[in-house]
Amino acid sequence: METLGPRIKELRLEAKLNKAALARRVGVSDVTISYWESGAIKQIGHERLVALAQALNCPLSRLLEDEGSHASPLYLRRHPPLPWQDGKQRVIELPIELVPGQRWDGDCHLVTPAPGEHFDFLKEGDLVAIAPSDIFRQPGLYLIEDDGILAIRRVTQGPTGELMFQRQDSDELIPYTPCCRLVGKLVAHWRAQPL
């Protein structure tokens, strides 16, 4: 897979921007742009990636994927099926520098809430990388199916190892029930920021 640094440089040149112009648009120094392009800085924060995509006038997915793959984000709806279940959707590989602190090495899909759909922890226009999984690996945000409805919940383990679910605006921990199952782990989350 092509690394992120050369892709940033390629997109900057396509946009006919020098490093200083791109740096001003993103809100960093031109030295930082040089470090990103060379790979000297391997971890780029989610907010900076969103700003970088906006400054380069390209979809965030183009920064995250190899040239030629350009997967469009899949729409997430509250009712199944899962967006990636038709078998035609391409998976993406996230460079490790985009998911610091995550222990994930599987396939991911770029997903965004469908128009008119509302999910805890996501706003309209947010982009998330979801790794399909029915296994709890670490605390964090998961896509769950609860009695036939898809939802995003913060998932942790209780003192005896049972899974506990939490909504965005509540401190209440909801215990696992047989009608609830994990269907994916959110491994990265990008929120568009106004320029």
TrEMBL record:
It comes from the Bacteria. It holds the Pfam family HTH_3. CDD domains: HTH_XRE. Residues 8-63 form the HTH cro/C1-type domain. InterPro entries: Cro/C1-type_HTH (IPR001387), Lambda_DNA-bd_dom_sf (IPR010982). GO terms for molecular function: DNA binding. This is HTH cro/C1-type domain-containing protein. It comes from Halomonas aestuarii. The lineage of its organism: Bacteria, Pseudomonadati, Pseudomonadota, Gammaproteobacteria, Oceanospirillales.
